[in-house]
Amino acid sequence: MEEKDEIGSRIKKFRLAKGLTLKDIEVRAKVSATHVSEIERGMTSPTVGALAKIAEAMGTDVAYFVEKKNVSKLSIINKSNRKKMQFKDWGATYYSLTKDIPNPRLSFLEVMLEPGIKRPEETSTHEGEEFALITKGVMEIIIGDEKYILKEGDSIHYKASKPHAMRNIGDAPCRAIWVTLPPYSL
User: Fold this and answer.
1) How confident is the model at residue 149 (pLDDT cuts 50, 70, 90)?
2) Residues 6+ apart with CB under 8 A from 76
3) Are the C-beta atoms of 7 and 45 separated by less than 8 Å?
4) Residue 95 backbone dihedrals phi, psi, to 5 degrees
5) What residue ranges define each of the domains in the chain, with the CATH number in brackets?
6) What was the pLDDT predicted at 119?
7) Are strands 138-143 and 129-136 parallel, antiparallel or unpaired?
8) Quick one: which of 42, 100, 113, 122 could link to 168 by a disulfide (CB 3.0–4.6 Å)?
9) Which residues touch 183 (CB under 8 Å, ≥6 apart)?
10) Selection from 115, 176, 118, 180 nearest residue 151 by Cα
11) Residue 66 and residue 62: Cα distance in Å, rounded?
12) How confident is the model at residue 103, as a pLDDT?
């Protein structure tokens, strides 16, 4: 794979994992959706300026798209070195359980939800699938108009194209192992 193809592929995967459209990037980065599409498909190489704008629009830095990744087919992460993303407004923390696998098709996350803080009823939708295994506590999963109460040891697998959300409805922290397709980038 040529370098411009690899950069474009990384941009597209990151954009999709963030749930952003080409139009979203155009508005945020002031780079035309057509040009971003051409970059993603490897039809053109981005200028340094365009790449910087695109990276900033997606909340990352240029290095994410251009650095040579570890091409190992093996991922080991020590618990203390996991990437994490916190959503303090609704008490959620996501931890990445893998890294450095080139062109991953899935992401593996540990999701921790604090007690007493509930995610707003807003839902998300995207292509692909999600799977969750509750490892601690009680979680409510909302898919479409249905609500499912899952306890430790319970699991759920669903098409992510349906509106979905999660929240901790217990009085203690809740944890789950989450698998997403396509990958979710932290």
Assistant:
1) very high
2) none
3) yes
4) -120, 130
5) 3-66 (1.10.260.40), 79-181 (2.60.120.10)
6) 63
7) unpaired
8) 113
9) 13, 17, 104, 105, 106, 107
10) 176
11) 7
12) 65
CA gap 129, 162 in Å, rounded:
10
Q: Is the pLDDT at 2 greater than 90, yes or no?
A: no
Residue by residue, what is the 3-state secondary structure of 145-177?
A: CEEEEEECCCEEEEECCCCEEEEECCCCCEEEE
The one-letter code for the residue type at 83 is K
Q: Which two tokens stand for residue 17?
A: 């994992």
- Predicted TM-score (pTM) of the model is 0.60
Q: What confidence tens digit (pLDDT) does each residue in 119-130 have?
A: 666 678 888 899
| CA neighbours closer than 13 Å in the CB half-sphere of residue 140 | 18
